[in-house]
Design brief:
CATH topology of the largest domain: Beta-lactamase
Strand content: 5-15%
Strand order of the largest sheet: 3-2-9-8-7
Radius of gyration: 18 Å
Number of domains: 2
Bound molecules: glutamine
Length: 308
């Protein structure tokens, strides 16, 4: 029997000397105000038992981790029709790159780069009609998956990104010019920035992602959020695309499906066993949590719980 709490304690100790490595995201000014040296890690097992270390109750901006929820919801609604608008191949490019999108006629490589997530948000907006209703439905879905009504967004982060979101707005305009966006650009990016600004703790995130460790059904409430084959595909896209141009590096070092966000969070799935969330806001050169990635690497090294 693995003593998970002891392993989390050891990880926390081993990370102490390097907790000041990396740089907090500052291209969204409100995110730059976050205390930089924080660290938290949570694991939730299939029976709901959980283990935590660090500031695991601190809520942080989930940012691109929200793309896992929106991709799940859109797959749920559109099934494989969704892939007419967004691919499922790694991009090999930074999360906010414009270049590839021009070459590939406005069809983003995958739902986890910004362009892909913006398209996914556009499909949800088409389904739910307006910004407020679409955001409410996305939030409601996250609350249901998390079995927790106490989740909301940070208005300052939302507004800060909206004011400084020139690159994402450029991506949306480029896709609109290729007819791959059905709604008004401003409505799409407003909704996208709002779901990126949702805040959750590692405790909440590790609980929320459990359905992906269990073929799409929450093992505690028994609610089926997605079919087993769709859950397989979400995990596959997390493994191959969840860390942008560092997805290969993450698979190499950690060996689990994972998704990062510039708020410093990462979620990772150990199929049939648990889901893991880490938080540490200082980022590496690819925009992924420096200590969060290290913590997951130490975890799979110590436990041999990688998928390989
Ligand atoms: N909201 C962020 C952006 O669009 C999300 C990016 C991320 O977390 N990697 O830039």
């Amino acid at each position: 029997m693995i003593n998970y709490q002891q392993i989390l304690d050891e990880i926390f100790q081993e990370l102490q000397p390097t907790l000041t490595n990396g740089k907090v995201a500052d291209y969204i000014p409100a995110l730059a105000k976050v205390l930089p040296d924080q660290f938290a890690m949570s694991i939730t097992l299939m029976d709901g038992t959980s283990h935590h270390i660090g500031c695991s109750d601190t809520k942080f901006s989930i940012q691109s981790i929200s793309k896992v929820f929106t991709f799940t919801k859109a797959l749920n609604i559109y099934s494989k029709e969704l892939y007419r608008k967004v691919g499922r191949e790694p991009s090999g490019n930074p999360f906010n790159s414009l270049v590839q999108l021009e070459y590939e006629h406005g069809i983003p490589r995958n739902p986890f780069i910004n362009a892909g997530a913006i398209v996914v948000t556009d499909t949800l907006l088409s389904h739910y009609k307006n910004v407020d209703n679409t955001y409410d439905k996305i939030l409601g879905f996250i609350q249901e998956i998390s079995d927790n009504q106490d989740i909301t967004y940070d208005r300052d982060v939302w507004f800060s990104e909206y004011k400084h979101g020139h690159r994402n707005i450029a991506l949306a305009n480029l896709m609109k010019s290729f007819n791959n966006l059905d709604n008004n650009v401003d409505d799409v990016v407003k909704t996208y920035f709002k779901h990126c600004a949702i805040t959750m703790s590692t405790k909440e995130l590790s609980r929320a992602m459990l359905f992906l460790a269990n073929h799409g059904t929450d093992p505690i409430t028994n609610k089926e959020f997605i079919t087993s084959s769709q859950a397989k595909r979400i995990n596959a896209v997390m493994l191959t695309c969840g860390h942008y141009d560092a997805s290969g590096d993450f698979a190499f070092h950690v060996g689990l499906p994972g998704k990062s966000g510039v708020g410093g969070g990462i979620v990772a799935i150990v199929p049939k066993l648990m889901s893991i969330a880490v938080f540490s806001p200082r980022l590496n050169n690819w925009g992924n949590s420096y200590s969060g990635t290290k913590a997951l690497e130490i975890f799979t090294n110590k436990t041999s719980l990688s998928i390989f």
